[in-house]
């Protein structure tokens, strides 16, 4: 075992750690959530990460998007993720794809992965992601943020959580609240913990459970659905 | 009948976290959100007793209605 993974070995067995090298995770969105998710997956040693984002960094991303800095404004978020991870963990292969996920490309982009990680910024694309996750029989970790607030759930094929409990609006209260540095980091971390548990079969998932986070009042509540 | 309303995130502003409401029997969550001056598009998730609820379902004494605004960012 390489020294780089030494600190992962007491919570995941050596076999579990090694198994991550053979796993493929797709992260859809390389912004606030996606930057943290990709960084954490790479440091865990998840062997193959597909990073999807058609967008480029903007100055307004600097307050929260881990991969953004003053030198890469205007540069592809997905390609930046790849270049960054090459420096963090060369064991990890990052396939950077500079597109927005839509009906025409979703199936091709998603197929072949072990887990889908949602780091999108709108509900309609999340619905699309859930639809193709279901069709291709791939579990998906959902995460959404707005200001002080966050949500996480883990969706297996057939669960149809988004369609069954979510009503209306494509965008949410983040339109008024924006997003700070800390909420994406927290929600991304929880999403990655779910990905690791799916990949290793450990622990209890947020499946059919919805975690609601309120950092303003410091409340964390899990609803059984 | 008496119901408990739990509000989440920004819906708490000016309304509070948890409210007890006295209503005529048989009224529904749509009336609750109307009384609280919450617009329909401000409600993304509606739970009645922790389960997915319908805007037009009849409420009964002791029910808990939980209302969440849409959260969509990433």
Structural description of this entry:
- In chain A, helix 2 (32-44) packs across helix 8 (182-200).
- In chain A, a hairpin with a 2-residue loop joins strand 5 (140-146) and strand 6.
- Chain A has one domain (3-224): Rossmann fold (3-Layer(aba) Sandwich), CATH 3.40.50.
- With 225 residues, chain A is an alpha/beta fold.
- Chain A contains eight helices and eight strands, in the order H-E-H-E-H-E-H-E-H-E-E-H-H-H-E-E.
- In chain A, strands 3-2-1-4-5-6-7-8 form an eight-stranded mixed beta sheet, sandwiched between helices.
- By secondary structure, chain B is mainly beta.
- Chain B has one domain (2-68): Ubiquitin-like (UB roll) (Roll).
- Helix content of chain B is 9%, strand content 30%.
- Chain B has one helix and five strands; from the N terminus they run E-E-H-E-E-E.
- Chain B has one helix at 29-35, and strands at 2-7, 18-22, 45-48, 51-52, 64-68.
- In chain B, strands 2-1-5-3-4 form a five-stranded mixed beta sheet, with no helix packed on it.
- Chain B is globular, with a radius of gyration of 12 Å.
- The interface between A and B is medium-sized, with 42 and 22 residues.
Helical segment count of chain B: 1
The fraction of residues in strands of chain A falls at 15-25%
The figure for the number of domains of chain A is: 1
Helix content of chain A: 25-40%
User: What's the Cα radius of gyration of chain A?
Assistant: 16 Å
Principal-axis shape of chain B equals globular
Taking strands numbered 1, 2, ... along the chain, how are they ordered across the largest sheet of chain B?
2-1-5-3-4
Kindly report the spatial arrangement of strands forming the biggest sheet of chain A: 3-2-1-4-5-6-7-8
Instruction: Tell me the name of the CATH homologous superfamily of chain B.
Output: Beta-grasp domain
Structural class of chain A: alpha/beta
Give the second-level CATH assignment, the architecture of chain B: Roll
Q: Considering the protein shown, what is the CATH homologous superfamily of chain A?
A: NAD(P)-binding Rossmann-like Domain
Could you tell me the mean pLDDT of chain A?
Answer: 96
Low-confidence stretches of chain A: none
